[in-house]
């Protein structure tokens, strides 16, 4: 039987959360980014920013599960599905450690993991979906693929674009690690988050379609 997630009181279990048998499938939503105030409004933290807004809209709270999952976690109903949302606190390039720990602990298969992250090859402000495939040069996705041993998880790609002068890799790195302007940041929290929610609904509906295995 597949399981559903529920929170217990901190006194009842060490980490404050537990897994019980149930009728619904838990989805693992992963927002990628770097921890720390200096990175909060950078383009590379697009995944963090969007999942933070989704969790806020769902009326859920974050918990510090650093000791167990190296992540901040939240339990929320998003796009009509029970979700465990995580923000890895490992830094981007080793995000897979956190994802693997959470997926293993809650017995969530790779196909029920959805990763939200910044993509420089998607125009700024646009949101696209990729159902599976390689890392495309993104180190966070690379780490998840390596740790999970599979690239078979859907992704929501949050477009941050790239500067016209980004001829060299260092220029791209400077671009994604630079703070966004207020208008760009607000657009990510509103328009792009709304678009991401629609993409998540489509992904979840597809996973319930005949022949999907769910």
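Q: What amino acid sequence fits the structure above?
A:
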């Amino acid at each position: 039987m597949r399981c559903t997630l529920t929170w217990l009181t901190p006194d009842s279990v060490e980490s404050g959360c537990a897994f019980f048998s149930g009728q619904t499938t838990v989805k693992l939503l992963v927002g990628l980014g770097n921890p720390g105030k200096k990175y909060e409004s950078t383009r590379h933290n697009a995944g963090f920013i969007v999942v933070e807004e989704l969790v806020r809209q769902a009326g859920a709270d974050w918990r510090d599960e650093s000791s167990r999952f190296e992540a901040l976690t939240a339990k929320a109903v998003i796009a009509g599905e029970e979700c465990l949302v995580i923000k890895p606190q490992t830094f981007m390039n080793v995000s897979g450690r956190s994802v693997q720990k959470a997926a293993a602990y809650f017995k969530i298969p790779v196909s029920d993991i959805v990763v939200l992250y910044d993509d420089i090859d998607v125009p700024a402000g646009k949101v696209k979906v990729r159902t599976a495939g390689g890392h495309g040069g993104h180190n966070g996705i690379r780490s998840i693929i390596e740790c999970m041993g599979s690239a078979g998880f859907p992704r929501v790609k949050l477009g941050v674009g790239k500067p016209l002068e980004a001829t060299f890799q260092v220029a791209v790195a400077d671009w994604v690690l630079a703070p966004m302007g207020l208008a760009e940041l607000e657009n990510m929290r509103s328009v792009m988050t709304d678009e991401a929610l629609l993409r998540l609904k489509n992904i979840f509906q597809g996973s319930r379609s005949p022949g999907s295995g769910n």
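Q: And what stands out in the fold?
A: The two ends are 11 Å apart (CA to CA).
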